[in-house]
Amino acid sequence: xxxxxxxxxxxxxxxxxxxxxxxxxxxxxxxxxxxxxxxxxxxxxxxxxxxxxxxxxxxxxxxxxxxxxxxxxxxxxxxxxxxxxxxxxxxxxxxxxxxxxxxxxxxxxxxxxxxxxxxxxxxxxxxxxxxxxxxxxxxxxxxxxxxxxxxxxxxxxxxxxxxxxxxxxxxxxxxxxxxxxxxxxxxxxxxxxxxxxxxxxxxxxxxxxxxxxxxxxxxxxxxxxxxxxxxxxxxxxxxxxxxxxxxxxxxxxxxxxxxxxxxxxxxxxxxxxxxxxxxxxxxxxxxxxxxxxxxxxxxxxxxxxxxxxxxxxxxxxxxxxxxxxxxxxxxxxxxxxxxxxxxxxxxxxxxxxxxxxxxxxxxxxxxxxxxxxxxxxxxxxxxxxxxxxxxxxxxxxxxxxxxxxxxxxxxxxxxxxxxxxxxxxxxxxxxxxxxxxxxxxxxxxxxxxxxxxxxxxxxxxxxxxxxxxxxxxxxxxxxxxxxxxxxxxxxxxxxxxxxxxxxxxxxxxxxxxxxxxxxxxxxxxxxxxxxxxxxxxxxxxxxxxxxxxxxxxxxxxxxxxxxxxxxxxxxxxxxxxxxxxxxxxxxxxxxxxxxxxxxxxxxx
Length: 604
Description:
By secondary structure, the protein is α/β, with parallel strands linked by helices. The protein has 3 domains: 3-55 and 309-339 and 570-601, no CATH class; 58-295, Rossmann fold; 346-562, no CATH class. The chain contains 17 helices and 9 strands. Strand 7 (190-195), helix 7 and strand 8 (218-223) form a beta-alpha-beta unit.
């Protein structure tokens, strides 16, 4: 950043500024440490990513809530398209991103890096496609290895450039659904939080709502399924919900409540019945959303980005304050505080070392699963292809028997490779997700312990900095690893009887089947094993880096100050002055960013 740009960012902090420029604030924060530590460099990169998203002006609205509250029904009604599957079974752990366009479209990104694009003919075909991609019935445990689904369709709700995220419900039978819904919060700028009267809002939902409130700049609560109630019970349920929300400490206007029958609203829309849509409560919610998107889209997006940026700046501010407090403190007191900090985080580094052992155990279990399933695949392939050989030999000419059998083998190994790799990816993802949550907890404990030890204001917990199980494809190879060669049939002599030539060809084909099955299974086993090893190595490196960053921002900052104090006892004044300037700037930036976030968050 140039001096001019930094001055422009600092000018945005002046009290007289009516509305500070968010882009300049983020740019100023991203360039404040002139000699950034490891942790600061990571946070500065994240700030630059936020600045890029701000420039794209892409507002993301997540539809959130517990399982079976009617999120997909509500989304269908708001979009005016019955495209999201509405079922008794939960969705898989795959959020669906829905954007506006003039025609229906689906983009599917798989975890192996491949991408498919489709143009469904109508809503029914789109719904069928999504059922096969994002429901437990159509894609149990995400065995198809879907990484992300993006849908485009014409809808007034999306005409202003908003993107709606349909998330799996929390609290379903499947833990991976809850984990996916929680992780989707990181991409949430605004939220529709869906509840229903049966049962009334639960303590678990209120806890989840608090997390949503901390991340989303705007939250609208939708009381769905009110068609199950009479008018009197509907009013009673809505008043009860409003009282409960008021008890959370947030102003009632900050979380407006709309009573809606999503199913009734969609039926009325499809029937061209405006009075029915109004009676369902859908019209009032639509008008509210369209009004806000038309008038306040930029404000909501700015508030969401400001909140995420404030968390990053808060982490940078804490590190600068640790350095400053350590430079100012008498050496003997600093030594005592550092000892107290080390005591407070006793066991964390030992836990980190234990992670290697646990990952080694996870690796062994995954490899055992791979070996067992590969042996099953080998038996299955040999049996199937030999039976196929007998069947083909009865009707295929000798000259084409090898090619026909090769096609059957290719199809089998394409399917077997995909099924086995995705099965193990699901298992690996679940294993690593648990390790990632524990790594985040360790890093947060380190930051809090440092703040308490030095009597500083703690920084809020950040979004996870550990590479996730699905952050990049684990399975680099695709399809079969080796195919059949052309099987030579009957070259010994054309003078032999046809029956003898066919028997010789059959024997050669049997030998070829056994050899090629063994080779394909071994190559498949090797490719998937290498992918597991690479995924575990990458993850282990990521959690080591995660801990190193947290320690660099805390204990290492104290140690560096102690070294400077010992080696330059008489010349730390300039360093103190420099840290004071950095701390003051970051503190002001953090406060201003939080102010921008709260400014919109309190608006009706």
